[in-house]
Specification:
Two copies of one chain form a homodimer. Helices cover 50% and strands 8% of the residues of chain A. Chain A has 234 residues and is of the alpha+beta class. The first copy, chain A, folds into two domains: 78 residues, Glutaredoxin (3-Layer(aba) Sandwich), CATH 3.40.30; 132 residues, Up-down Bundle (Glutathione S-transferase Yfyf (Class Pi), Chain A, domain 2), CATH 1.20.1050. In chain A, strands 2-1-3-4 form a four-stranded mixed beta sheet, with helices on one face. In chain A, helix 1 links the parallel strand 1 and strand 2. In chain A, helix 1 packs parallel to helix 2. The longest helix of chain A is centred in the middle third of the chain and has 33 residues. Chains A and B meet through helix 3 and helix 7 of A and helix 3 and helix 7 of B.
Chain lengths: 234, 234
């Protein structure tokens, strides 16, 4: 039974949502991504997911089952496709991944947002530009150009905030160990948000996190690498 | 074969080290704590652990095997006593716990230190007071009374820093799920540091973290509750 995956969509179908990436990597981990039908949902197309009873993507529809929220999607896939490779590696791993998921939201996402939020605006479909600009400027309390200005100065804070990941992957390929787990996908999704929507490079090539990101881009048949990256500034 | 556990010791044998607590809870989890011989090591008694080739407690000696560093001790116990209840719940859980362990060191411990560091001084054996005062004042660059002054104002930051734990334990008893895992013991050790050395209360009773801490105090036959708490201020 095919899964329909409702994912946020920008200009030319670019899929940059960090939460969409968590769900997408979870689907890839379970071997379900390639067969999932992808329904692109622009910011202005909330009607497409009205059946889910709320307004946020990602949403998956698996037969008659509808699940929204990237964490709930991961739990649903883990429990429903229990015979496929585990996303969490058991109960203790699930709780720890939940903590890392929330830590990413609180400690990593806001710093990355400050580096790329105006670039995301430029990657929105033109029909969504006004909505994105108004809603994000209201949230941040400043013009998007202004939030993003001086982003080079945010990088040391971001690199420091990522330190707990670095500690782990200096000793092993993934947070999950020899293969990635959902604890990898949560922060990796944030890096994919930047990769797809912004020409600004967040990491230094000498940082072990660079190689970790490369390994995740290659994971599951290069599922993440298949999404076009935003061209780098010349 | 009995394990000898070299743990930091304060006045009257008080055991307040946050890293000592991680090792102690790991031993309790494996059912090894009650039988472990405890060797109290004051700050001024580094000679007692000279055989370990370094100067920091905790250290365990299990037959001929010597292990120092709380994380290394946890991994040693997990691998050596693999037939006992798992500390990590597998490879993915181990990597995620490693991240949470490091996150605790970076994000939680410094805030708690600012709330209790002078109280810890008062709980040191009098032979260690000068050493503790000088080494900590050099590290923090201020008098210990001064660091601790205004600690009430640190609490909102601490409560915010603990938010990723709260997110998890609002949904389940422990980070580990229905029973605690090492991902619980790492931050719990930091709370035990405060409980044993300071009359200052870090948590509010209405905070779900309070009940979580109570559950951890009760875990493994009340292993942590057996250690006398510092009397609360009148």
């Amino acid at each position: 039974m095919a899964i329909t995956f409702y994912d946020l969509s920008g200009k030319d179908g670019a899929r940059f949502s960090p939460f969409g990436w968590r769900a997408r990597m979870a689907l890839a981990h379970k071997g379900l991504e390639a067969d999932a039908m992808v329904e692109h949902v622009r910011f202005g197309e909330k009607a497409k997911i009205e059946f889910s009873g709320q307004k946020l993507v990602p949403v998956i529809k698996d037969g008659e089952t509808v699940v929204n929220d990237s964490w709930a999607i991961a739990c649903y896939l883990e429990d429903t496709y229990a015979d496929r490779p585990s996303l969490f590696g058991g109960e203790a791993g699930r709780g720890a991944a939940r903590l890392i998921n929330d830590w990413t939201n609180r400690s990593i996402n806001p710093l990355v947002a400050r580096c790329i939020v105006h670039d995301v605006l430029l990657r929105c479909d033109e029909r969504d530009v006004d909505y994105f600009k108004e809603s994000r400027e209201a949230r941040f309390g400043a013009a998007l150009e202004q939030i993003q200005a001086g982003r080079e100065e945010v990088l040391p804070n971001l690199h420091q905030a990522l330190a707990p990941i670095r500690t782990v992957i200096e000793e092993q390929p993934f947070i999950g160990g020899s293969s990635p787990s959902y604890a990898d996908y949560a922060p990796f999704g944030t890096l994919m948000w930047a990769r797809v929507s912004s020409p600004f490079e967040l990491l230094e090539e000498s940082d072990p996190l660079w190689a970790w990101r490369e390994r995740l881009l290659d994971a599951h048949g290069g599922a993440a690498r298949a999404e076009p990256a935003c061209p780098k500034a010349a």
